[in-house]
Fold:
Amino acid sequence: MKIHGVNEIEGVRITPTKLVADDRGVFLKFRPQNEFVGTLDSIALSFNPILGTIRGLHFQIEPYAEEKLVTCIQGAVFDVIVDLREDSKTFGKWASIELSSTNNLQAFLPKGVAHGFQTLFPESVVHYALGAPYSPEYSYSIDPFGDLGINWPLETTSISQKDVSGVSFMFAAQQYAKSLKN
Structure:
């Protein structure tokens, strides 16, 4: 079930980035340390040349569950988040927001929130600040066409086999809950 706004998902914060523009161009400053509860592990960029590409819905379980700070620095994406935390009042809800190089918004996602997006323009670039290292053994993908009922805005033109064959929401939530008990 979709919840109205992304910032209604418990712990998610949408904030503007610090942008300075002049005749030379644009300077964009990120401050993940101001957003993260934990430590910053890495910075990553996702280059997406094809309009309609879907990436996600990705998350990691403990001990590698991660906070994320997500910003679209070129083009635009339909950004989707899903609450996997059983103790959250928004458990099982998903929400979406457009992140773009023109609206300069960034989304802080706490641990226990799955994330994905669809490109709304070719050559879209997404910037991530991540709070934990990537660990394939602790990483999952939720089926973006499965039981969540997400209405992707465009026809899907590109998606990985891992994402298209992702797990159900309930399986994902169970894996996340189990990891908190270990």
The first strand starts at residue 13 and ends at 16. The radius of gyration is 16 Å.
